[in-house]
Amino acid sequence: MTEKCKTATLQLDGKSIELPILSPTAGPDVLDVRKLYAQAGVFTYDPGYTSTASCDSTITFIDGDKGELLHRGYPIDQLAGKSHYLEVCYLLLYGELPTAVELEDFETRVTRHTMLHEQMQYFFRGFRRDAHPMAIMVGVVGAMSAFYHDSTDINDPWQREVASIRLIAKMPTIAAWAFKYHTGQPFVYPRNDLDFASNFLRMCFAVPAEEYEVNPILSRAMDRIFTLHADHEQNASTSTVRLASSSGANPFACIAAGIACLWGPAHGGANQACLEMLKEIGTPDRIPEFIARAKDKNDPFRLMGFGHRVYKNFDPRATVMKQSADEVLDLLGIEDNPILQVAKELEKQALEDPYFADKKLFPNVDFYSGIILEAMGFPTSMFTPIFALSRTVGWVSQWKEQLADPAHKIGRPRQLYLGETTRDYVDIENR
Ligand code: SDX
């Protein structure tokens, strides 16, 4: 006897339409409107998808009211404290924490895919030296489909797996080389005897003129930043990847689309915008002026690194990032970093202001990350590329999950049309 499915009844034009209610393992129930147009001849209307579930997924869950973020059921603060990025990548990709043997095999597979096809160097050289690293990443990742033909067939599970590993493994090299190209320094090749985060730091900061010693404090902080950005349900860039994939586009094209979407200052570009804002504020005495601007409806200015579509209590990643900022700056001996002081005072004053409390606006993942990244030596232009390389595993995991669903189909939203109804063409002499 199957359990009777809960339904909601819609009364429309004298008709009653029963809409199934789908129950999750966590989170709100979902009203299944897949047959609504066929049964009632009406669309739902939800620009910005504030009330819309675009898919089902088992990868990440966010409880915005509790400030909870789970990856395959494991809380982000536990993963950030006890795990490391490549283990979290395994968890997101395959659904379970790996055994020691599984982890070693996975890390070896990723390590052996960190080099880029040598010809790709010339792709970088086509850019101006002052090109934003995100522009380079969008271009180079899209171009990977021209270099890695043997992992573009999405219907071949082996090719899907190879493409996944290649993307996770090569993104740090691409991001580091975009940075090196920007600075005019020579590219540094990955090394197989370094862990993921140390490899990235070395590719960014090593120069041929001297040996580069990885600072374990920075390496641990870098790895934690990667973990905190790994995945986040159906955010704008992940939804972009899913929509691109729904047409059957190759994995490199889909991830390039995700990178492009992440670049926006309302999304992944907020970490760069936030540090630039903190620097513009400069000193704690100017904070009230900026808070007033953020509250002014006639001023498009918003506090960068503040607010979130889902979190309405606090962003658990921001909590971990704030702790990490304190630790890293302290361990680096950066006493009284003025920007960190401005950030902490801004957070304090904003959270005491009814405007932000009433609208449930809190620091998000981007509020403190830039402070750590700048202390590590990165320019603001590298903040979003680091977010993109971290999020690649989330995009790839969600991409694989969608392709594995036999019921998935091309995404094709409809619209509320408010334009002209049918009218006849008017010859130019009669206009
Ligand atoms: C990320 O989706 C994800 O999961 C994204 C992400 C991930 O890991 O993938 O978490 C990463 O993108 C984090 C967010 C980074 N962006 C920023 O920090 C930019 C600043 N934040 C805002 O632009 C905004 O808060 C958003 C875009 C993050 C969320 O916007 P929403 O959910 O669409 O909310 P909204 O724009 O409708 O704002 C609700 C109200 C509005 O006022 P009213 O129209 O109701 O009067 O709050 C106000 C907004 O004006 N508001 C802000 C504000 N954010 C929202 N006012 C001042 N400063 C802000 N930062």
UniProtKB/TrEMBL annotation:
GO biological process: tricarboxylic acid cycle
Record bears the keyword Nucleotide-binding: no
Highest taxon above the source species: Bacteria
Active site: H308, D366
Entry-linked Pfam families: Citrate_synt (PF00285)
Keyword Ubl conjugation annotated: no
This protein's UniProt keywords: Acyltransferase, Transferase, Tricarboxylic acid cycle
PROSITE patterns linked: CITRATE_SYNTHASE
Pathway: Carbohydrate metabolism; tricarboxylic acid cycle; isocitrate from oxaloacetate: step 1/2
InterPro entries: Citrate_synth-like_lrg_a-sub (IPR016142), Citrate_synth-like_sm_a-sub (IPR016143), Citrate_synthase (IPR002020), Citrate_synthase_AS (IPR019810), Citrate_synthase_bac-typ (IPR024176), Citrate_synthase_sf (IPR036969), Citrate_synthase_typ-I (IPR010953)
Cleavable signal peptide: none
GO-annotated cellular components: cytoplasm
Family label: Belongs to the citrate synthase family.
Name of the protein in its database record: Citrate synthase
Gene of this entry: gltA
